[in-house]
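dumping these here so i dont lose them again. two proteins, back to back, each one seq then structure tokens. dont judge the mess
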Amino acid sequence: MEKINEIWEEHKDKIFLIVISIVILSVLLLPRIKATSSINGGDMQVQGQSQSNYELGENSSSSQLVSTMSVNEETNSQQKIRVDVKGAVVHPGVVTIKADQRVDAVIEKSGGVTKNADLDQVNLAHKLTDQMLIYIPAIGEQVQVNSPVLIRQSQENEVDESERSAAETTDANEDLAGKSGSKVNLNSATKEQLTELNGIGDKKADQIIAYRQQNGNFKTIDDLKNVSGIGDKIFESLADQITVN
């Protein structure tokens, strides 16, 4: 005990100084520790709220998309159109029907077909459009009505379109060949054909025709240089485009 008292007496000033320092440090650091804890806790809370809001937004967008698609499908299925039904049906006339229906549905709504109806000529799966004419022919009838649901007319339209495209292609090829390969005959060319030659305008074309009328046919293409206003330069630019055969 005496030894402890001796130590205390000897070092009490230092001990007091250490204790006071610890107290001061505690007072200074404690608010900072609390603030840091609060910030960390707040960040965790904000992150949790953000994730919840994101999940909520994502689920909401998906629900809205599904809802929009459902509304569109329901609108399309409820939309009404009017078609004109003629020919071998029990009740011909204008029929109001859903837009997503086909020919067989509108025939049924018209009371069905008559006994002499020729359904072999009709595409029953043809999809309806507003103002469509639906014609059901009778057996043996030579149909004169233009209706898109008739198989024979559809095939003929396809053939006509194919033939028309082929004819247009042939004409285009002939025009291209005429422009690139054929030559203008100086002895039979019209004014329009002559003006297509390099360096030949309306006036020179008239002079070529006048020369031809006065002197007879050109014997060679070189005779073209005898026409007033056509010199060597113009002749060289069009020599490969002309003939006298």
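---- next one ----
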Amino acid sequence: MAKHAPDMVVDKKDQLEQIEGICLPEELIHAVFDLKGQGTGFIGLTNKRIIFYDREFAKKAKAIVSLPYSRVVTVGSEDKGGFIFRKGFMVSDKLYVGVSGQEVKEFEFRGGDKAHQAHDIIMTYVLD
């Protein structure tokens, strides 16, 4: 069973359970965030990958998708016409993840603070 980081953040328990169900025994879950928007329902961040529920996977199916950090080439935040950061938090609640060989994935969080947390977790492993 997957392990939980001591400072793990979880928005909804049922989403955590779905992430736990597909994690490998040595994976460490850092966060599971509920998302807004039509395409994605939630995102899980482990020490090995980004896991997200995609309601429009391959334009036809619902799927839980795994994205290894080794495939991430860019991470960005939407600029809403001003500074991206304010008092240590992203102003935008949208995070963009560029994947080698694929289109950019867009994740809309329920607040800029959660987008900022996700950004920091992702960058920890992308820059490692």
